[in-house]
Specification:
With about 400 residues, the chain is mainly beta. It has one domain: Pectate Lyase C-like (3 Solenoid). Helices cover about 5% and strands about 45% of the residues. It is built from two helices and 35 strands. The strands form two sheets. The chain has a 24-stranded parallel β-sheet that branches. It has an eleven-stranded parallel β-sheet with strand order 4-7-10-13-16-19-22-25-28-31-33. The model has no long low-confidence stretch (mean pLDDT about 90).
């Protein structure tokens, strides 16, 4: 098998697309290496179309979106569509788009205006199997830094076969338009040691999103040691409201993850209405300095999804608005799913607001929410939650 190296001689300063795409499309090649040339590689949309292909970006390499290109609302910087055994590695390398151009926040003199879109992703992995992404920085996309979803030729965007066994680790996702990283349809998805920051543009504006978009989508995702900072509307967002297929099972976990600043919530979980089964688990996580609720739970006991928070800590939550914990609850008379707190700790904000806000019909009780929450408060007092009789709140006044 060949190994192609792209050097300065291949780096057309105005448009290097053809050189890179030709290398990626060449048969009987196992790896394409893009070398550092001292100037960026300016490109139109790139595609990995062959199984078993490895794209290696040397330290210092910058792959940059060409000004005036990417006019289609689904144009992505690098796409992997329906392939197997693809590797993208680039420790110290950057994939950079032109978010300000696409969103109209920067003058695009001499170019046709862009149609608004949330799908101009930095890296788009759709319907692919055994894909590994490591080390890269993805910034200023017109959608998500990294998007993982479904694909089938001829079907509308987002439909088709789910991605399977995708690993993303040691990546940095900065200043993207919709999300740092999103999983819309995937099984065996593992995200580790990856940071999302400064996401701002269009909803949901979160660092990490798991959001199946139709009833047949899959959601089997694990996050380990991932961090979110300064994302406009939240750190982690799980939305399973569209999973309505009883044979589908969601398995989502967060372990040793951290939100160190958020313009919205720390972690938001939406579990209604859904007919699918499964679990959402957060273990050993820290959510701190969130302008909105540290935990925002939208839940109905009719859901077959069980949520668990084990040894999680919330600090300085809701320092601007709302409450430290916000629960939007409905349909309490049917008890299928559960929410459990174990060794959970809440440190109230310095500028204290309500610790808990329960939104539900008056008189409803939710015994399916249970466990222990230790509240450390500089004001003291009780935390009455008659709607949650099985939640044991232990309060302690901080000096």
């Amino acid at each position: 098998m060949q190994h192609i190296r792209l050097t300065r001689a291949d780096c057309d300063r105005h448009d290097a697309t053809d050189a890179i795409q030709k290398a990626l499309d060449t048969p009987n090649v196992d790896a394409v290496t893009v070398e550092y040339t001292g100037r960026p590689w300016i490109v139109r949309p790139l595609f990995i179309r062959r199984d078993g292909r490895s794209l290696r970006l040397n330290p210092g390499v910058a792959i940059e979106a060409k000004p005036g290109a990417f006019k289609d609302i689904h144009d992505c910087l690098l796409s992997v569509l329906g392939q197997e055994n693809v590797t993208i590695e680039g420790h110290g390398a950057t994939l950079r788009m032109r978010k300000e151009d696409y969103t109209g926040t920067k003058s695009t003199k001499g170019t046709k205006a862009y149609t608004p879109s949330e799908w101009r992703h930095g890296v788009s992995i759709r319907g692919s199997r055994s894909t590994n992404v490591s080390g890269i920085t993805v910034e200023s996309s017109g959608g998500d830094g990294i998007y993982i979803g479904a694909y089938a030729p001829g079907l509308d965007y987002g439909h088709g076969v789910a991605s399977n066994v995708v690993q993303v680790h040691d990546c940095a996702l900065d200043q993207n338009h919709r999300a740092g990283l999103s999983v819309v349809s995937g099984t065996g998805i593992h995200i580790e040691r990856t940071t999302a920051s400064n996401t701002k543009g269009t909803a949901p504006q979160c660092g990490f999103i798991v959001e199946p978009a139709n009833p047949t989508h899959e959601a089997d995702v694990s996050f380990v040691d991932c961090k979110s900072g300064n994302d406009a509307s939240g750190g982690f967002y799980v939305n399973l409201a569209r999973m309505k297929d009883p044979i589908r099972e969601a398995r989502i976990s967060f372990r040793a993850c951290r939100v160190f600043r958020s313009g919205g919530s720390g972690i938001r979980i939406r579990l209604f209405p859904t007919e699918s089964r499964g679990s959402v688990v957060a273990e050993d996580c820290l959510f701190e300095n969130t302008a909105g609720p540290g935990l925002h739970l939208q839940w109905t006991p009719k859901s077959n999804i069980n949520a668990r928070f084990d040894n999680c800590v919330w600090k300085n939550a809701a320092y601007i608005r709302e409450s430290a914990f916000r629960f939007d609850l409905s349909d309490g008379e049917v008890q299928n799913g559960t929410v459990t707190f174990s060794r959970a700790m809440l440190f109230a904000a310095l500028r204290r607001r309500d610790l808990l806000n329960v939104q539900c019909v008056d008189g409803m009780v939710f015994p399916g929410i249970s466990g222990d929450v230790a509240v450390y408060d500089r004001v003291g007092g009780t935390l009455p939650i008659p709607e949650l009789p099985n939640v044991n709140v232990i309060t302690e006044i901080l000096p």
